[in-house]
Amino acid sequence: MSNLKLCQGTRCHTYHTQDRLKGTKENKTYQTRRRSSFYYGQGNFCSLNCQNDWFYDFGTKAIDHFGRLTEPKHLTEENAWHKSYDWGSADEQNRYFFVNGITKERRSLTEAQYRDSNYTINTGE
Ligand SMILES: [Zn+2]
């Protein structure tokens, strides 16, 4: 029981579902969900709804605390590569490729490189 986590949703206990209704006959209450793991919000929320409730209540404070963007970020040419493929290509050597989102340049990839989620030619953020 002690390894269970509580959903961090600020209104989790207000949703009327059977699994939240706990207690004996005269003392039933709707309670915050408690599970060994949660799927949403890096394991902090039982549902997208609860994640959204939290953000509605604390999102602005969290952004101000951790640093609000005051200037747009820039994705430059050297970091604009993304993987793509062309199944219609009869040329198997060029079926997988990097394409640059800014210059539209293509560079061939092997299938293994395409499937390796760590393989990139981008140099930074
Ligand atoms: Zn919840």
Class from secondary-structure proportions: alpha+beta
* Number of strand elements: 7
* Strand neighbour order, sheet with most strands: 5-6-7
Low-confidence stretches: none
Tell me the major beta sheet. 3 strands, antiparallel
**Helix segment tally:** 2
The proportion of strand residues reads 15-25%
Report the average pLDDT across residues.
Answer: 93
Rg, alpha carbons: 23 Å
Pattern of helices and strands = EEEEHEEEH
- Spatial separation of the terminal alpha carbons: 42 Å
Which molecules are bound in this entry? zinc ion
Helix content range of the residues, please? 10-25%
What gross morphology would you assign? elongated
How would you describe this structure to a colleague?
There is one protein chain. The chain is of the alpha+beta class. Helices cover 19% and strands 18% of the residues. The protein is built from two helices and seven strands, in the order E-E-E-E-H-E-E-E-H. The strands form three sheets. A three-stranded antiparallel β-sheet has the order 5-6-7. A hairpin with a 6-residue loop joins strand 2 and strand 3. The structure holds zinc ion. Zinc ion binds next to loops. The site of zinc ion has 8 residues, from loops.
